[in-house]
Amino acid sequence: MNILETQNIGKIFYQPTEFEVLKHITFQVKKGEFLSMIGKSGSGKSTLLYILSTMDTDYSGKLLIDNQIVTGLNQDQLAEIRNEKIGFVFQFHYLLPEFTCLQNVMIPALKLGKYSSEEIEQRAYNKLDILGLKDQALKPASKLSGGQQQRVAIARALINDPLIIMGDEPTGNLDSKNTSIVFDIFQELTKNFGQTIIAVTHDDDFARKSDRIIEMKDGIIIS
């Protein structure tokens, strides 16, 4: 079953001069697949991720998420899809340092407003438990190591049980030990929880160990 599909996606930047950054991008992502997108800086991979995440709506072609065409939806509709169906993990964890780990993880679910605050707290504990951080739940996020903070960010991405987790260099700020921990977590999420993951990475080892690699160059998929 395809969770995400692109049909002929193109993107043009007009500043400083007209430049076609993506050309006829067509591919599908299956449920439970761990996909890495690689390519040199300027290859278009981050621009593509931005479109896949529905943040950038200025493109040609079509994007389908969960068999629904999301191209052309308004900002409120897209915000709803993002909240419910997409979890984000960035290179920097973007945790609120004065909030506890638990409070940080709860934020997207409070925003979604689908569960009571008791249920959200329970879910947050559950996600931290999966990531081996339940014992750190009540610590301020600023008191954790970089690797632990990134794991809290993954728990936060999981809180609404999204269909897809999108990672933009999710291990870009970590040493090799923590990179390996984060990779193992992603692998476990796909294998044991059927989670779909799409990650842009510069780390060839990380990419090689994922289920599938899309390599980009000059705005096209070359493999």
Brief digest:
By secondary structure, the chain is of the alpha/beta class.
Descriptive account of the structure:
The chain has 223 residues and is of the alpha/beta class. The chain contains 7 helices and 10 strands. A 6-stranded mixed β-sheet has the order 6-7-8-3-9-10. The protein is globular.
Largest sheet: 6 strands, mixed
The fraction of residues in strands falls at 25-35%
| Cα distance spanning the termini | 22 Å
Secondary-structure element sequence?
A: EEEHEEHEHHHEHEHEE
Question: What characteristic shape results from the CA principal axes?
Answer: globular
Overall structural class, as computed from helix and strand content, comes to alpha/beta
Number of strands: 10
Low-pLDDT residue intervals, each spanning 5 or more residues: none
How is this fold's topology laid out?
Blueprint: E1 2-13, E2 19-30, E3 34-38, H1 45-52, E4 60-65, E5 68-69, H2 75-85, E6 86-89, H3 101-112, H4 117-130, H5 146-158, E7 164-168, H6 176-193, E8 196-200, H7 204-209, E9 212-217, E10 220-221
Parallel strand pairs: 3-8, 3-9, 6-7, 7-8
Antiparallel strand pairs: 1-2, 1-4, 4-5, 9-10
Helix pairs in contact: 3-4, 3-5, 4-5, 5-6
Essential attributes:
223 residues; alpha/beta; 6-stranded mixed sheet; 4-stranded antiparallel sheet; 10 strands
